[in-house]
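Journal club side-thread
Mid-discussion, someone asked how the predicted structure for our own chain would compare to the paper's figures. Pasting it here so we can look after the session.
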Amino acid sequence: MAMIDNDWLEYLQEEFKKPYYKELYAFVKQEYNTHVIYPPADDIFNAFHLTPLSEVKVLILGQDPYHGPHQAHGLCFSVLPDQPEIPPSLQNIYKELESDLGCYIPNNGFLEKWARQGVLMLNTVLTVRAHRAGSHQGKGWEQFTDAIIQAVNAQDRPVVYLLWGRPAQSKIPMLTNPRHLILRASHPSPLSAQRGFFGCRHFSQANEFLVSHGEEPVDWQIENI
């Protein structure tokens, strides 16, 4: 794993010392040695490399990484730029962006641009076996990412949470900072997008909140490659 080397490290170095994390590290190392695991090991912490804690202005919470080849690279919902197919949930996110902000639908699913603007794109579980969704749940990642969420909750500045679907919304009791905005909707997957994700206008609401508190809005337009 490529270790975290920005301001996240100061907050998480105590987390790395805890018994659960040592067990998690050993489990993940063994999995990479014996199975095909996504994302590539050096990409596990990409969300933190690209979005320092001091720069987080929006948190999008996913679940597992994608479990197919050449997709996951450490940012929830994002796929590598050479991936020819945009996953269905991300297609629906693009449709909502088009409806909400007039963004055109790009020809790729590479969302690094968002991460570089302060959008922390966090999955609650950071690794997965190939073609086995949920295979690394309950191994300790949830405790680690809860610590990440708590770190964001403690920031004394405006932050927006985009919580799509019940698993993401189960974290709401942790979000106690009155300076922050919680936006919730159904998940953008094809199974549930029609039940409240489409029309949620989360992207414009997030920008309106940020601007009203003196922060730069997010440029949500992903460009064609």
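Post-session note: The mean pLDDT is 96.
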